[in-house]
Fold this sequence. Notes:
By secondary structure, the protein is of the alpha+beta class. The chain has two domains: 9-103, Signal transduction histidine kinase, dimerisation/phosphotransfer (DHp) domain (Helix Hairpins, Orthogonal Bundle), CATH 1.10.287; 113-260, Heat Shock Protein 90. It contains five helices and seven strands, in the order ααβαββαββαββ. The chain has helices at 2-66, 73-103, 117-134, 153-169, 228-238; strands at 113-116, 138-143, 148-151, 176-183, 187-193, 242-248, 252-260. The chain has a five-stranded mixed beta sheet with strand order 2-4-5-7-6, with helices on one face. α1 (2-66) runs antiparallel to α2, α2 (73-103) runs parallel beside α5 and α3 (117-134) runs parallel beside α4 (153-169). The radius of gyration is 25 Å and the shape is flat. The N and C termini lie far apart (66 Å).
Amino acid sequence: MKKVEEIENYTLELEERLVELSLKVKNLTNKLNETQKSHTQLLNKLTHNLKNPIGISFSFSEMILENVENYDSEKLAKHIDVINSSSKYAIDLLNSFVKFNSVNNDTYSLNLEENNYSEFLNEILNKYSIKFNEENQNLFYQTEENLTLKFDQADLTFAFNQLLNNALQFSSENKMTSVITTTNSTHIITEITDQGVGITPENVPLVFNAFFVENTYTAKRKKCIGLGLTIAKKIIEFHKGTIKISSTPNKGTSVTVKLPL
């Protein structure tokens, strides 16, 4: 009787383990299917976004080649400019997608080094000050001195470039963008506030989604890619930080980045 009871207990335990294993396999299968679905959707969006600039470049180059000897020089210059801007958009899109894939890879890691965050940020802002001046815009920045932090310089540069580019591209002449960096007991806080076109309230939660764009074109009629904020958020979160956006249409946007000390 004891052996029979032991066999029954063993059988019951085995059945329970099989059920548990079956549920794990099912969950993993569901996750794999979701991942494959997500990858397919992203590739479809990438393909869709590449069709237009490649098609434009091809069409205009054909027009030039078919009648190259009789092409008016002014018209030729305009058409070459269209080909150039379309090609640049396609290259920027592919480079952004490569970076997007990189930060979403399981093997992705940061190259963390202790650096002077104040000097790092000021160096970026000094370069952008020139860009803002070229667009007849104003950039004001104020940073606490000698803030040190462990961070990946290349990746954090990429993230702040995206945020500052957005402020620049979605603002018009004579507008002000301010960058203020402060600290509390636990974090370095950098707030970027512009006076640009802003974002509608219902779209603010969506701006970090891959390929999401509220405005297809910037204030300078440059076509948006829709991956910059997605990548920036991922990089900041890899630094165990947070990024939040608040915005009012036609008044501007404020982006707050918090990085732990």
